[in-house]
Design goal:
- This protein has about 450 residues and is an alpha/beta fold.
- It has three domains: about 5-60, no CATH class; about 65-345, TIM Barrel; about 360-440, no CATH class.
- Helix content is about 45%, strand content about 10%.
- It contains 19 helices and twelve strands.
- It has helices spanning about 10-15, 20-30, 50-60, 90-100, 115-125, 145-160, 180-190, 205-215, 235-245, 280-295, 300-310, 325-335, 340-355, 365-370, 375-385, 390-400, 405, 415-420, 430-440; strands at about 35-40, 40-45, 65, 75, 80, 105, 135-140, 165-170, 195-205, 220-225, 250-255, 315-320.
- Strand 9 (about 195-205), helix 8 (about 205-215) and strand 10 (about 220-225) form a beta-alpha-beta unit.
Amino acid sequence: MNNKNVDRRVFLGTVGTVGISASLANINNAFGAGQPQTTGTETNKPADPNDVKTQQEQAALLVPKRELGKTGVKVSTLGLGMMYNVVDNQIILRSALRYGVTFWDTASSYGGGNSELGIGNFFQANPEERKNVFLASKASGANSVARIDERLKQSFERLKTNYIDLYEYPHGLSNPSQLSDDVKKWAENAKKNNQIKYFGFSAHSNQAALLEAAAKLGWIDVIMFSYNYRLAQDSALQKAIDAAYKAKIGLVAMKAAGSASSAREGGRGWRGGREQPAAAESTESQKLNEQLLARGFTQIQAAIKLVMDDQRISCVNVGMDNVPILTANVAASLDKNKLTAEEQQAFRQYALATCSGYCAGCSQICDSALQQKSYVSDIMRSLMYYNSYGREDMAREVFAQIPSDVRSNLLRIDYSTAEARCPQQIPIRNYIAEAFEKLA
């Protein structure tokens, strides 16, 4: 096997135009994982893992690393997000390590606890791999320092480890006031006791204010936040990212694909049938896909590359539950070619044409308009999981976290003021009704 067979650009092009499985066969051969194949009179044997040339080829196919803020630790630029049952999916962990995807993200609530349990099973069977993984978990549902301790202890038991590299609380921060002195003291003690190495939080909404606030605190190590080609158009968020980066906070992006809540842009559609996109939406979608496929990119690969090309972002954490998806995203990570100005403009036009189906997470606008905590951004996120990800379990989990007394009143609220103020021009009332039909 020569170097051309594992060239990064060729690999990516193959994934985009020929198919992931063909590329995976080639890359597996570089790692000695392929089976002997006979073509005519010639037999191709699996690569010898001890061969120097083989080792060089393997190294060229490892996802690159980037420094994670002031931690000084270098993490893989592609992270493995595991919001699913990992107990029955050990192959994804082995494959991730093979390609150098060593940033692993989980939470106490993911997969009903089976995400952490599955990772723990892997570490129990492969204890030597623990040191090779940068493990992140979150204190899901904790609302006090005492509950953080409970969640952390539970995670240790499930994960079969006595430390977590990055621990995040709150899991889904919405207000800077939640980053209290008590939380700071807890983080300091957990580090002192070698329970965690670094502390941070995750966020889906009100992100500009959260990043700005964290940059001034001085004790937040890492922030995991939603960031993609849609949110990149937000000047306030860009300013906040600059502030956090200048403060040497490690920045991990999630939701990089920019998937929408809309059924017509998502996979399954409402009432069992896919809705037809508006004319402008369909035209921009076709234009974008034609440009990207000509370069050998899928839309998701290109969207991930756009975020990775931002040097302020240390890691792009992507939910990946099977090897083909993992391989496609590894390909995007390995490719050194940047998207052209025309391709970036096509993404901007597509974002504009489809904005009414995507919630930008500016929950403070809805809350102000409705004069109460509205949970609109959470509902839109649950619909994104349902319509775009095809993950009804995740959608129901997020929807169920809304207090029952609030859920029971959602259809009685007048959303007209919030709709008028919404910068995305989202028909909020329609989406609330859709969520009730699908998830209540």
